[in-house]
Amino acid sequence: MFEQITGHQQNKEFLERFLTREERPHALLFYGPEGIGKCMLAKEFARAFLCHETVPGKRPCNRCESCRLLNFETGNFAHPDYLYFDPTTDEEQEKKKTKIISVNQIRSLIKQAAFGPTLSKHKICIINEADTMNQEAANSLLKLLEEPPDKWFFILVATSVSRLLPTILSRVIQVRFTPLTIEETRKVLLEHGIPEAEADLLAHLSDGSLGQALRFREERILDYRNMALKYVAEFPMGAPMTYLLQEDYFSDVIPSAGGNEQLQQFVAMTVSLLRDLLFVKSGLGEQVFNTDAIPQLLKIAEKWDAGRLHQAVEAAQEEAAAAARRANTKSVLDSLTFKINACCEGRI
Ligand SMILES: [Zn+2]
What we know:
Elements lengths: L8 H12 L6 E5 L6 H13 L14 H5 L12 E4 L17 H10 L10 E5 L7 H12 L5 E7 L7 H4 L3 E4 L5 H10 L4 H10 L4 H9 L2 H12 L7 H6 L1 H7 L6 H22 L12 H8 L4 H19 L4 H16 L4
Parallel strand pairs: 1-4, 1-5, 2-3, 3-4
Helix pairs in contact: 4-5, 7-8, 10-13, 13-14, 13-15, 15-16
The structure holds zinc ion.
């Protein structure tokens, strides 16, 4: 069951057993890092939970009316016993542009809670990113969880447990999700039709978060990596000031003047390459993230010694932190270049 979702074997088994239980709690909380498939599994569980098939192991059967009316592949969510809430931009929050699960959403849920299931034996409600609820929304939901309507079942999905009220936590069974392994992430990326070298890099960089890996891909991270590879190969520069004045090159790296996100990507890729160079230099090639760039890394590594690379990684990490603080783009690039160059020439 739930084969289409990679990883999370223990949780899948727990949910399978859960389906067969007569007596069960009325609310679960799926929590763990972003983008690892928590919500996807919650939705697949909902299909199995509502399915009309009598043998639990055969759910979801993909044939019954319930399965037809709740099918994420065909985009059919017309099932009357399925409710799903995603954070929205609330009117009051409009200015802040943050998306939250608002009290209005919880109020609409409470109104619907007056009704029982119509097509399946139960009703199921998924609240995604439940940790974005403000106090007011959380208090309203708490009332519902304290006196759950008959035949209703809730799944809360959250990244951070600490952002949820302890009173809510006491009303749910917590199911912890851990990141996927690099191999699992890579497998899913390959299934998405992403070429092998890119899937490899994305799996390593995203730390087991598939959502993060796909976001990286959208943000053209490979382009930034290739630019950073060209940049890292330039050290030692001899005359970094002259190099930095070649604005053409950097306007290539940082397409828009105030593009801090592009800068962050570029610096992060520079850090990952310097780190890989250190692994190559230390004979730990199997730890390399940028596996497709190993031939170039071997060549660049000839110009460095391990101690200096270590210093360069630390210096670049400092600049990555500065970029994340949204420091001035030019000063981050200048400082990054001077520091790496000084490390490479052994002047630090
Ligand atoms: Zn079915």
